[in-house]
Design a protein that fits this description.
The two termini are about 20 Å apart. A six-stranded antiparallel β-sheet has the order 2-3-1-4-5-6. It has helices spanning about 10-20, 40-45, 65-70, 120-130, 140, and strands at about 1-10, 30, 35-40, 80-85, 90-100, 100-110. The longest helix has 8 residues, at about 65-70. The model has no long low-confidence stretch (mean pLDDT about 85). It is built from five helices and six strands; from the N terminus they run E-H-E-E-H-H-E-E-E-H-H.
């Protein structure tokens, strides 16, 4: 089984206010007051500004969208996360913006690299957004990011 995620995550109110001018944006509530906005093909096409895709080393961050995330972070921290796994092997990366600047990352774990002591990139980003994990779970599980295997499933 595979898992893929390309999404913006922030407090529900932060994202609801930010996406009012993005008809292609769809939000899904996740745990601990956060919302997730999958980067669907439609959203990607609507926000890309024609500059290089892959800014900051991400696979699917639309060109110019990092500036938008920085702007949105004036209302509260905003994370961009990516993960791709198949058969337990994969990669993930994340960054967090707050008050207009990157405050975490981009942090990455490439295929074959161990998870650092600080946790996976996505768990680090979620922690930066205020997620608290219980004993025996990580932040990824604490907000329910394990409920769906593919980005598009969050809004289906």
């Amino acid at each position: 089984m595979g898992y893929d995620l390309q999404a913006v995550i922030a407090g529900g109110e932060v994202l609801r206010g930010a996406v009012c001018d993005l008809p292609a944006a769809r939000l899904a509530s996740i745990g601990q007051g956060l919302s997730l906005m999958p980067v669907t093909d439609a959203l990607f096409d609507s926000v890309a500004d024609g500059s290089d895709v892959g800014a900051l080393g991400f696979w699917r961050l639309p060109g110019g969208f990092g500036k938008t995330l920085a702007d949105w972070s004036a209302a509260g921290p905003v994370a961009y996360v990516e993960a791709e796994y198949f058969g337990g092997v994969g990669e993930q990366q994340a960054a967090v913006w707050d008050a207009g600047t990157i405050v975490l990352g981009p942090v990455r774990v490439r295929e074959g690299q161990p998870i650092p002591p600080a946790g996976s990139p996505n768990s680090q980003a979620l922690r930066r957004l205020g997620v608290v994990a219980s004993a025996g779970e990580d932040e990824f599980s604490a907000v329910g990011l394990d409920r769906h295997r593919h980005s598009e499933a969050w809004i289906a």
